[in-house]
Every structure is written in C-alpha cells, then in structure tokens.
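Reviewer comment 2.1 asked that we show a complete input and output for one of the modelled complexes. We chose the guanosine-5',3'-tetraphosphate case, as it is the one discussed in the main text.
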Amino acid sequence: MSELTTQAERRRTFAIISHPDAGKTTLTEKLLLYGGAIHLAGSVKSRKASRHAVSDWMEMEKTRGISITSSVLQFEHLGRAVNLLDTPGHADFSEDTYRTLSAVDSAVMLIDHAKGVEGRTLKLFEVCRLRGLPILTFMNKLDREGLDPLGLMDEIGEKLGGLRCFPINWPIGMGRDFKGVVDVRTREVFLFSNSKHGQERGVEERISFEEARERLGSLMDDIEEELDLLEMAGDGWDQQAFLDGKLSPVFWGSAMTNFGVAPFLDFLVESAPGPAPRETREDETITPDSPQFTGFIFKIQANMNPRHRDRIAFMRVVSGQFERGMDVKIGRSAEALRLSKPHSFMAQERSIVEEAWPGDIVGLYDPGKLRIGDTLSGGEAIQYKGIPRFAPEHFARLRLKDPLRRKQLASGLDQLSKEGAIQLFFRPEFGQQDPYLGAVGMLQYEVLIERLKNEYRVEAILEMTNFRLARWIGGDEKGLEWMKSRRDYPIVHDRTGQPVVLAESPWPLQYALRENPGMELFDVEPL
Ligand code: G4P
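Response of the prediction step:
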C-alpha cells in the first residue's frame, strides 16, 4: 500500500455537536487525555470565562493572537491519527459551526442524559443530516440522575427525524449507582472506578457478565432484562447504515469522571469513517488517494490583534500529500500561491507543519486572496462544490456614524462577507447600498462592528429588523412573480444575485407555498 493510502486511511476527522453545557469542553479534554495528548485534565485552558461575555472573548482573541474558537486538536490513538475540530464554545452561535461540519467525516452528538435532545443539538443535527454525516451519540453525565435510557433512545428517534439508534453499550445504574457499562454485543462488563475526580485516566476492569452479577447482585438482573428487551426490539448493528448517517451508535458515560470515555474513543477510531471523497463542480469524484494534492478552505479567521493583521485560512486536505512550501493554484481564479508557513493547531498552540494528509486540517497564512469554499490544488486548478450557506436568523442594517465613510463601509462589508463573517442581502431598489446583514448568531454582529472599526476605520451602529427567516426561492417561476406582485413579501438578492424572501414568521411563507404549488423555498443556499 502506498504511504498516501496508509496515511489517509489512518485519519479520523470529527467534531462534537451539542447544546451548551452538555459537556463538550469536558469531553474534548478527556478525549485528549485518553489520546495521550495531555497527561492531566485541566491543562487545556478553560474557556469558561469567555463563554458569556463577548468583551472577554475579544480580549482573549487579542492576547492570544489566534482565535480560541478555531483550534484543531490532533492526537494518536490505536494507531490512528485523530483530528478533532473544535466548534465555537460560546453560548452564542455562528455560521462557523456549520462550516466546520463541512470539513469533518463524522460528528459526535453529545447529550446531557438529564435533558435529552435540546435545541442547539437539533439544529446542528440537521446540518449533519444534510451532508449525510455519520453520527455517534454520547450520553453524558451518567454520574447524575437522568432520563430512562430506553425512553431517551426513543426520544432521539422521534426528535431527530427517525435517526435510528443502536446502543453499543448500556449503562449499569446512574447517579451515585453508576458503575459502568455493558458491551451490548458481547455482554462484557466494564466497571469503572474513580480517577482523582477525572484528572487522570480511570481504572477500568473488564469482567464477564456472570462476575458482574456476583459483585453487583440484583442491579445486574434489571440490566439483563433491558438487554434482552433491546435484543428483541433491535435489528443488530449495521455498519453501512452508520456510514450512511442513518444509524447512530450510542454510548453512555460521564465525561467528568472519565467513565465510558475509553470504550467510546476506541469505537470512534476503529469504526468511524476515514477521509471521504469529494465532488468537483463538474461532478467528478476525487478520492483521498488521488496523487494530486487538493484541499478546500472552510474557515477564515482574521487575527483580532491589530499589530499582526494576519488572517488564517483553515484548509481541509482532500487528496494527495500536502507539503510545506508547495506551490498551489486557487481554483476560483487559477492564481498561484506558495504555502510557505502552514500551521497545525494543538490546543491553541501553533506549530509549523511539514506535511499533511487527507483528513488533516492545516492553517494557512492568507494574504487576502482566499475565500471560504476555495479549492487549492497542487496541479491543475480544480473547484470543489462550494460550502452552502444556511439561512440566517437575524437581520440588521448598519447606520454610519460618519456618512463620508460609505465607501470604506462597502469595501469592509464586501471583504468580511467573503470571509463568511456575515451574509449580505441586497434590496433591488437600492443596488449595493444599505444591504441587510444576515447572521445566525448575534455574536457575529459584535465581531463585525469591532472589525469594521479596527480594520476599516468605520464606526457603525446596528439597527435590528424584525425579520427572522430567509428562504431562497426556487421551482416554478410563477411563485416569484406572485410574491413580487404583492407588497407583503420583501424580496432581496444574495451574494450571487439569487432571489431570497424575508419573513418575520413562517406563516406568510406557508401561505405562499399553498398558493403556488410549483414553488420551492430553501433554507440552504442552492449551489
Ligand atoms: P460545554 O462545553 O458543552 O458548554 O460544557 P462543559 O464541558 O463546560 O460542561 C458544562 C458543565 O457540566 C460544567 O460544570 C462541567 O463540569 C459539567 N459536566 C461536564 N461533564 C459532566 C459529567 O459527566 N457529569 C457531571 N456531573 N457534570 C459534567 P460547571 O459547573 O458549569 O463548571 P465547573 O464548575 O465544573 O467548571
């Protein structure tokens, strides 16, 4: 096997999706602990302080020089190279999170078992489903009382559009009685014991079901009943259905005490998929073992430090070997670029990368030439299909403090929208002037205002609108004409001139769809 194939097959690239407070930071840290990347949990700096206060976060951005929201954590486990892409940990939420999911091959859905499926998880799950991403589920906080495990599995199926679940293991007790998990397929029992409050790897004893019964008594009788029930109800493990994003393996544990982290990580590196092929705009499929290096940009992070105005573009390697100093072409413009100082990111530290393989994420210094969705290639210029934009949920306009800075504002907005910091929607009657700014999370606006001030010397005031929904209009043209003929459907144009309707509530959109059966409304930009 060539080194390229071996290296590509070794990669596991994933992200964790969850509702705030479900334990993403804690689980991330424990995965690093078990992956041997850190030796004492607690050494990855807590992002707690930054989570709620935007100003703190900006301050941290400045002092660290690189965004704390953009780390890629790399570690080795069982001979596999694991890339964990960190999604922003803020209570607020932005399009960055969506785009990060375009660069992974699987996602871990982390659920607080006392709360079940919460709003943010649902939203992120929808993004995963759109990509057909395989999803692993980790039920967290078993050291506390929670919902009935069988009921929780049903809830996932109901709330997540029929996603089927297969418990790979099953909890033995919960709260103070949480003793460990049973492997559902082999009925081997993993008993956990405390590990200095989760600071160090825990001790896991693997024993037979019979031995567990001797030690734990009647608790195991209940477990046996539940396992029999699961066996009768379930269809067995189907790896293909998992890879197709239709079946989710479920694990139980407590990230805080480390219980259940090891079997979960073992499964992840063994069974989650390696790097996926990607389609070009010409519908050609490029596989990771294609010798020509290719990659795409899924995120651009401008440095908030005014002294070093550098921008980092995050690239996911799709095929071939990436080497430091290589010359590449940008697919969009066929322009050449030398990648002289590529970086990898480990728990917020940068280090220079000499080489990278399919599945890896590399941070590139961007001289202002790169955009979200750009393809880079070592040989001929090619273009992968773009990264779709999702309909924003907030819409605002900007009022300039100094009307003479209008030109600077326009160029700032143009640049920042190309970086993906904000979406612009233009009103036909105003041309390029005074666009609506669409965002998924309010934090995006705060960052925008700050960056306009620092980088473009433009002071602007935000004026929120009541719009909550945007839908791209497709299907039968008559639908668009019907809406245009009425006064109550504001139609705007997106970055490529596609028509988009804005609304304050779903009702007018539902009415329009009823009146125009051939029309379609999309909450994701059609590419
Ligand atoms: P997030 O990144 O998803 O927002 O969650 P984070 O890991 O910060 O965890 C949120 C809270 O839940 C933290 O408590 C954390 O300690 C706790 N937590 C995480 N995993 C577990 C678990 O397995 N069991 C229990 N019981 N708690 C867990 P906090 O009080 O907000 O912070 P701290 O005082 O622990 O720092």
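The longest helix spans residues 218-233. We note this here for comparison with the apo prediction described in Section 3.2.
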